[in-house]
Amino acid sequence: MKKILIIDTKAGNLFSLKAAIERLGFNVTILQQPNTENYDAIVIPGQGRFGTVMENIQANGWVEYLNQFKGSTTPIFGICVGMQIFFNASEEDPEAVGLGWLNGKAQALDFPKKPMVGWSTLKDNVWNDTIVYFVNSYAIKDSPYSIATTTYGENFCAAVKLDNFIGVQFHPEKSSEAGSQIINQILTQGI
């Protein structure tokens, strides 16, 4: 049984994410600080503010821990703000510095209504026309690492990938069967 680590960033509903991953047959551990165990994949959950999530990740030793896995075969899966922190910064908290693994900045988008809450269709070559659930006010507008986009007021990145870093702006744990398939694919194949 594959072992999955969920990082407790003090933001978001960890238990719905844990339940969604466990339903797929994975063994899930939630940690506030790194330990020395080996995991088959690492998940950085969504919800919460960019600055608060980065503050908690830095304060609890996660930056050094995560940097060990750059370029490895261990998938690092970021969800919502967990994806945004892969980048340099966010307009949501201009003083906060992201992990900087990918160049770019999360920006407030010209949504018809803020925050974006609801279902939207992915456009890409991996999950094309899959409908997933979003809850966000900020996103990466464009990136060379984008593997999926969606539209809500304007186009933005719905998913990014570089080596073993895979991020999604949507919430696969709230996206029904399609979301379960995406979680399973990322945690087992890394896309």
Automatic annotation (TrEMBL):
Q: What is its EC number?
A: 4.3.2.10
Show the Gene3D superfamilies listed in the entry: 3.40.50.880
| Record SUPFAM superfamilies | Class I glutamine amidotransferase-like (SSF52317)
Q: In which pathway does it act?
A: Amino-acid biosynthesis; L-histidine biosynthesis; L-histidine from 5-phospho-alpha-D-ribose 1-diphosphate: step 5/9
Domain named Glutamine amidotransferase: which ranges?
Answer: 5-184
**Entry's Gene Ontology molecular function annotations:** lyase activity
In its keyword annotation, does this UniProt entry include Nucleus? no
> Does the keyword Amino-acid biosynthesis belong to this entry?
yes
Q: What enzyme class is recorded for this protein?
A: lyase
Q: Could you tell me which InterPro entries the record lists for this protein?
A: Class_I_gatase-like, GATASE, Imidazole-glycPsynth_HisH
**The entry's keywords:** Amino-acid biosynthesis, Glutamine amidotransferase, Histidine biosynthesis, Hydrolase, Lyase
A Pfam entry, by short name: GATase
Provide the reaction this enzyme catalyses.
L-glutamine + H2O = L-glutamate + NH4(+); 5-[(5-phospho-1-deoxy-D-ribulos-1-ylimino)methylamino]-1-(5-phospho-beta-D-ribosyl)imidazole-4-carboxamide + L-glutamine = D-erythro-1-(imidazol-4-yl)glycerol 3-phosphate + 5-amino-1-(5-phospho-beta-D-ribosyl)imidazole-4-carboxamide + L-glutamate + H(+)
Subunit-level organization: Heterodimer of HisH and HisF.
Identify the PANTHER family for this entry: IMIDAZOLE GLYCEROL PHOSPHATE SYNTHASE SUBUNIT HISH (PTHR42701)
Q: What is this protein called?
A: Imidazole glycerol phosphate synthase subunit HisH
Organism whose genome encodes this protein: Aliikangiella maris
Which gene name does the record give? hisH
